[in-house]
Amino acid sequence: MTSVVTERIxxxxxxxxxxPDPEVPAISVxxxxxxxxxxxxxxxxxxxxLTPTYSGCPATEVIERSVLDALSAAQLGPARALxxxxxxxxxxxxxxxxxxxxxxYGIAPPGRTTPADTAPIRIVRRQRExxxxxxxxxxxxxxxxxxxxxxxCKALYRCLACREPFEHFKPx
Amino acid sequence: xxxxxxxxSRAPAVRYLLRLADLCLIHAQRLGEWCGHAPILEEDIALTxxxxxxxxxxxxxxTHAGRLGAADTGxxxxxxxxxxxxxxxxxxxxxTLVELPHSADGSPRGERDFAVTTLRNALVAxxxxxxxxxxxxxxxxxxxxIAAKAVKEARYHQQHxxxxxxxxxxxxxxxxxxxxxxxxxxxxxxxELFEDDEVDAHAAASGLGPAASSLKEAFDAEIAExxxxxxxxxxxxxxxxxxxxRGVHSEHLGFILAEMQHLQRAYPGGAW
Lengths: 172, 272
Prior knowledge:
The structure holds 2 protein chains of 2 kinds.
Chain A: H1 3-16, E1 35-40, E2 46-50, H2 60-73, E3 79-83, H3 96-105, E4 107-108, E5 142-146, E6 154-159, E7 165-169
Parallel strand pairs in A: 2-3, 4-7
Antiparallel strand pairs in A: 1-2, 5-6, 6-7
Chain B: H1 12-32, H2 41-73, H3 80-85, H4 114-135, H5 141-169, H6 173-186, H7 198-206, H8 216-229, H9 252-266
Domain PaaD zinc beta ribbon (chain A): 125-170
InterPro entries (chain A): Fe-S_Maturation_MIP18, FSCA_dom_sf, MIP18-like, PaaD-like, Zn_ribbon_PaaD
Domain MIP18 family-like (chain A): 10-73
């Protein structure tokens, strides 16, 4: 790879670090772990490889557009977005910096996925779910209000210590 | 002018994927009917979240089925919208179970009963989770990749709907009565989920995905455990077999399609 190409790709990564996720604007698409690769194709276009978070995530198209707009604004185009489904996105790919920003934004970040996440579904006598710490007061005394929230990736919780409701980014 | 109907490829691999995609789409459309009407706000959000995941899964499958179909018949691949909105009723291959109305008496005019929705969600989510697990091993890499994502979503769906079956079945007198009624209404549509034909045989032989019958044992075990915990009794299985997966549907699918297809038919290629 020539140094010009390397530099263009490097600059693209720097630009993408600043592209916010449309539904959780506190973190960038890179911190979310959905930008898998940036490469230059034979025709000279920059290719950004994205992986979808949820099958039905309505932000997918918006993310593609904002990524391409950002690259074009930085005069790094022409660029196109490619979708890569394999391997499937996991919340384990959210960076430590991303987790810190989520917490600051008021969203409890996901814990690490565990082998239990692939074990058979248990209806009764199931393991207690790991407690989710309140992003405001850090108390582990919280309860889940709903497994589904305002976006596919979040659940609704309430802190029993400070009484504030908050969202939890579900480990998946 | 209205958009003309399309005829998808009849290749077994395409039909196999359309069965799965149509199951997701029609189930999602029915779930969407609760939007703004669910018994509690959290459940309104949950049902539409499930619906959204299912539509996403259907989109990925339609796109891939369209490509496989083009390889079979030549010409341009049919896209997700054409496959979702421009087929005739007999070209939809979802099992009859997912097209039934939510009513307690099975009639299209009856009031929606959350118990019917709840039980159907648990049945469908259990079947789908088992199917997606097997599909992660598909010989078709794209199908395996779609499944690897979908199985994680299906786990949430199954857990959520099973929790509700338990809560209502082992709940008040009224909730238990309604849940048992839902079982009586839906039970005869379950055997279709495990009926093999040449499409299943082809998929199993080519490694594309599991034959429907091979999911039965695990499904029966999980549902039996859930029913026992929820104090629900399974009725005897009679001789009736629904035939949606072969394209022969109940009276209800036509009405769903009329609503779903109206815009694309009236405004061909309409987008927003």
